[in-house]
Amino acid sequence: MTEIRKQLIKILSSIELTKTQRNRAIDLYTNVCKTIEEKSGLEISFYAQGSFATKTAIRPYKNGRDQAYDVDVICEVNVPKESIRPEILKEYFRNALKESRYSDIFEEWDKCFTIEFKEQDGVDFSIDIIPSVPEDYKTVQLLTGMTENPHLVRSSVAIPNTLDENNRWITNNPRGYVTWLENEIQQFHSRYLLEKRDNILTASIEELPEIELKNNLLNIIKILKRARDVFYYRRNSDNKPSSIIITTIIGKLAKNLSPFSSELDLLRQVIEQLQQLKRYPTNSLSQMMNVTGYAISDIITRDMGQWVLNNPANGKDNILNSWNEDETKAKDFFIWIDNLQYTFSTLIENDTEENIAAEIYNSFAIDSVNSNSEKKQFAVTPNSSKPWRAK
Questions:
Q1: Where are the alpha helices (DSSP H) in the chain?
Q2: What is the pLDDT of residues 326-350, one digit of tens each?
């Protein structure tokens, strides 16, 4: 195990949830959801979505310090979408929370209700409760014809958006997305076993324990998310890419990454792929993989000047829409990728344990007894709300 990899593993252990902390989060949102079900009289299925569901959750880093863990929970109500209006569904949840022990600690947003739980065992949680109903038949049929993994569409839900007077439903498919990512990780693992069996050259390759191998892709996502949080804070920028952008890119790239690679080698492969995006044409159809030789060209396209990264479980969702609405987001993304390349190139060149520890802990804004260098001070960036949180 290289010194850099040792330090990356230490960093991961300091920013990810332990089993005990994860179980506490589950208990917290389970109690909230059961309370809403009891008070409202609705039949509700509830499950985590986002980073908690994909097991890529890390402690958020905002305003120069670690923050509460975010947990997003879908509350799927067993009523037909056609029989209830978005604002009425929200009203059921609002009234239930007002009549509960959470009445003084919840806050309502356009698509969710947020409850902040105080610290326990060194960790505090911010739970987002997101009301939903099963998506209607017509929408599911439409999604089936436009989604790259149509078999995942059946789990789609409709989420109420009550930002203004134009109350409407928004299609989402968190369960389908989690299933897709789990499948990609399993295929990555299966390739390792297959190549290990068939390739005699693997005898010279350091074998990784299976538990570490299965976590490698998830660890890459966590490392990139932490690097993103620190970089955009220090850059004083609100343009950081959402977690689903990072997760989807890694999931779609997985089939083109070497299954025998450590976290560091996987990072280098991913960064090399992402560097190619800067070469995309501005106002014409993107070059495809058989032209560029890079898999990323078949994952992220630029069609007539519009960036496209399709949600693998929801054909209506272009994950890069924000890049098309604000071109500075794409520009800042490429600056971040350049920074990642520079950071890890520098780490590789610093061959002493002391230099590596100091550099890597500073890059990820982690305090370390191994590092005597002072961290640079940066201006505080205002908190940016989640994409589904708006007053």
A1: 3-15, 19-40, 50-54, 86-98, 137-146, 174-198, 210-234, 243-253, 263-275, 289-292, 321-325, 327-349, 353-363
A2: 999 999 999 999 999 988 887 777 6
